[in-house]
Amino acid sequence: MMAYTVQDAVASVKIVEAYCFHAISVFSYSSLFWDAIKNRLHLPSFVAKLAKKFLLPSGAYIPEGLPTIKSSFTPEFAEYLRLQHSCNKFSSGNLYDACKVLEGPYLETLAKLLRIHKQWAVGPFNPVTISGITHHECLEWLDKQSPNSVILVSFGTTTCLSTEQIKEIAIGLEKSQHKFIWVVRDATKEEGQVQIPKGYENRVKEKGIIVKDSQLEILAHTSTGGFMSHCGWNSCMESITMGVPIATWPMQFDQPRNAVFVTDVLKIGVVVKHWDRRDDIIDSTTIKNCVKKLMASTEGDEMRMRAIEFGKKVRESMKNGGDHQMEMDSFIAHITR
User: Which residues form the Glycosyltransferase N-terminal domain (predicted)?
Assistant: First the structure.
């Protein structure tokens, strides 16, 4: 239920409790809250840095110069978020699509800054294992490839790209000389149906294929060694869970901060598009170089190893007795007390 609906129920029925579910990363939420504190108190940068050392828990690294709300959200959506946040006063606690092994220090940050300890990390909500996969054509193609040799390119279900940008992506992938699967949906193109350069699919058929879906199944395949993504939180969690490093290309909303979390905090990604270039067309050479860095460099191999380790920890946390079960049990015990 939306927050403004819940507030009526909580206000009129005294025995009703409401709990806020946050679908964005805890890193994004805690860093946005930290920025709000700095701005409200008008702290000079050097004072803010000192305050950060004393106020933030160990391990809660929040880089300077994160993308602002103004640059990431439309005014209308920012106002919507403000109204939603104003309903927090009716909340008896918070639930997050988060995993403690990834975002534990940022959960501590929120507990400290918000002075609220009724919070639970109940994520991830994506499957951590894949079973009973329908053998899609792209999965049969992946079966023939070497381990960690293929990069998946997918920008979510609502992202719009210009015809010029689609062309640069196509050329960049071809020039990289690396195997790829490119998920292209009609929503990917701003004017409607996507137009891949003429003759492209036939020209790259030995190196790559273009499909419309199956993102999670592709990420779970052993041949997939990289993921070029818009950095929606669901996509980030799917990639991390499957142990796949990310080439970050944020588009809007919380995605720019998720991208920073991937590259600067977890250190399992390379930057394709910096947020300060959000209105620019990213040329094919930049795309080619990022693919090569992620898929065929010592630095890329190190990112992949870190991603694999994080994936193992997330999957372990989902087992009986793991953090996920403990958090769910704690929340259930709380609401049935």
Answer: 1-127
Q: Which distant-in-sequence residues (6+ apart) come within 8 Å of 234 by Cβ?
A: 125, 126
User: For the residues 92-97, what does the mean pLDDT come to?
Assistant: 91
Q: How far is CA 240 from the centre of its chain?
A: 9
300 with 178: CB under 8 angstroms? no
Specify the pLDDT at position 248.
98
Query: Are both 47 and 66 inside the same structural domain?
Result: yes
288, 165: one domain: yes
Residue 104: pLDDT band (50, 70, 90) is very high
Angle at which helix 284-295 crosses helix 163-176, to 10 degrees, equals 40
What residues contact 232, with CB distance under 8 A and at least 6 apart? 156, 255, 258
With tokens 């190190």, the residue in question is 302
Give yes or no: residues 109 and 183 share one domain. Answer: no
| Distance set, CA 267 to CA 46, 78, 153, 301 (Å) | 26, 29, 19, 12
Tally Cβ neighbours within 10 Å of residue 182.
23
Spatial separation of the C-alpha atoms in residues 240 and 144, rounded to whole Å:
24
**SS3 track for 134-195:** CCCHHHHHHHCCCCCCEEEEECCCCCCECHHHHHHHHHHHHHHCCEEEEECCHHHECCECCC
Q: Shortest CA distance to 229 belongs to which of 277, 159, 284, 175? A: 159
Q: Are residues 299 and 323 in the same domain?
A: no
Quick one: 75 and 99 in the same domain?
A: yes
* Length of the chain counted residue by residue: 337
- Residue 57 structural domain: 3-124+318-335
Grouping H, G, I as helix, E, B as strand and the rest as coil, residue 296 is coil
